[in-house]
């Protein structure tokens, strides 16, 4: 691993949750050095946190239900502890809607634990509530992630977490406060290497027209599902080929029928009841976000472009919401319209065929291979 020096310039490609979280932790790590390490985040969109980072459930958790992910437990716990430490700050909790021990799963049963559910979920006596569906320690905000990225001539930090808008705004603010430069509307199109194959600079296009060159000592690709494409474009001679797969989810966002309180923020999984992915997450902005079954055949659009969701699945999600959420809650709020859909969309997660994230340093030799 290359040891960071005070005059190093680190460029992070990707301004989503992975990129901003890494920038934030690196900036904190270098805050006591003089001069501080320079960190620049490059984002192809008009603002950071716009892809899957803004369209996900919002869960911090220790546990992984998939057997192939058990090896990630130390990483997940490390990440959880980082966020839990941030949650000691009142402003962080207020900005993100952070609420500990707020993830629940529903199973067929006899009504055990229904009192733990938030008011916006119906209480059916044929259900049991599992408070450890994502492990014994959880939290909800208004983003859930295992990220896949590469750090060249360096190391790499990893994270899992939640609340897209709240966490995104908080991360952006903290990055800027800690001296991180965030540059938007920049598309990385090339990389220049030194004679020993170490990265010297990245070449970008501003608004698709003007060429901008940014010198750097280390480079991190945190481009989510676009990471393999960007890597192969920057280093076409590299023998490394990522075994990627599609993992998309269609989602809806709608008005919470119940008043927004601290206890409103929660994650509820209906997966065991329906036999496939189905989850709802209420946020502290008065909305509920819902996602249905995973889509492994959707076509990944170019960066900064949207992919339309399946209208049939959107209708199915809406029907689940109407059937299983509490539209007649005991409150003073008048329900003039039972179901108020705000928005719909499709999000793509970084995903490998093994289900494991890719977290790796790439040596200079592996950037070009045997030429």
UniProtKB/TrEMBL annotation:
Keyword Transmembrane in annotation: yes
InterPro entries (UniProt xref): FAD-dep_OxRdtase, FAD/NAD-bd_sf
Membrane-spanning intervals of the chain: 141-162
Annotated FAD dependent oxidoreductase domain residues: 10-362
Signal peptide: none
Pfam families xrefs: DAO
GO cellular component, as recorded: cytoplasm
UniProt-recorded Gene Ontology molecular function terms: oxidoreductase activity
Keywords in alphabetical order: Membrane, Oxidoreductase, Transmembrane, Transmembrane helix
Domain of life: Eukaryota
Protein name per UniProt: FAD dependent oxidoreductase domain-containing protein
Originating species: Neoarthrinium moseri
């Amino acid at each position: 691993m290359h040891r960071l020096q005070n005059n190093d310039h680190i460029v992070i490609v990707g301004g989503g949750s992975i990129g901003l979280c890494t920038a934030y932790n690196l900036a904190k790590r270098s805050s006591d050095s003089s001069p501080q390490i320079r960190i620049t985040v490059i984002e192809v969109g008009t603002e950071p946190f716009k892809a899957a980072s803004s369209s996900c459930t919002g869960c911090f958790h220790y546990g992984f239900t998939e057997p192939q992910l058990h090896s990630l437990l130390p990483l997940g716990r490390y990440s959880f502890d980082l966020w839990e430490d941030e949650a000691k700050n009142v402003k962080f909790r207020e900005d993100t809607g952070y609420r500990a021990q707020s993830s629940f799963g529903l199973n067929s049963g006899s009504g055990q634990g229904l009192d733990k559910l938030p008011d916006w979920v119906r209480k059916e006596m044929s259900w049991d509530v599992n408070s450890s569906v994502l492990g014994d320690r959880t939290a909800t905000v208004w983003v859930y992630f295992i990220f896949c990225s590469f750090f060249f001539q360096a190391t790499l930090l990893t994270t899992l977490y939640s609340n897209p808008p709240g966490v995104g705004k908080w991360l952006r603010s903290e990055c800027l406060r800690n001296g991180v430069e965030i540059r938007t509307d920049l598309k990385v199109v090339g990389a220049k290497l030194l004679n020993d194959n170490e990265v010297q600079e990245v070449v970008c296009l501003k608004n698709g027209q003007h060429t901008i060159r940014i010198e750097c000592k280390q480079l991190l690709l945190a481009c989510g599902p676009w990471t393999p494409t960007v890597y192969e474009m920057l280093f076409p001679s590299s023998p490394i080929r990522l075994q990627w797969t599609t993992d998309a989810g269609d989602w809806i966002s709608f008005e919470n029928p119940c008043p927004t309180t601290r206890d409103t923020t929660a994650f509820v999984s209906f997966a065991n009841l329906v036999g496939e992915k189905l989850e709802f997450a209420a946020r502290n902005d008065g909305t509920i976000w819902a996602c249905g079954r995973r889509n492994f055949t959707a076509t990944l659009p170019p960066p900064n472009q949207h992919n339309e969701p399946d209208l049939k699945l959107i209708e199915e999600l809406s029907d689940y919401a109407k059937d299983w959420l509490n539209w007649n809650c005991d409150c003073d709020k008048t329900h003039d319209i039972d179901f108020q859909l705000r928005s719909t969309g499709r999000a793509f997660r970084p995903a490998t065929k093994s289900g494991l994230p890719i977290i790796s340093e790439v040596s200079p030799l592996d950037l070009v291979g045997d030429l």
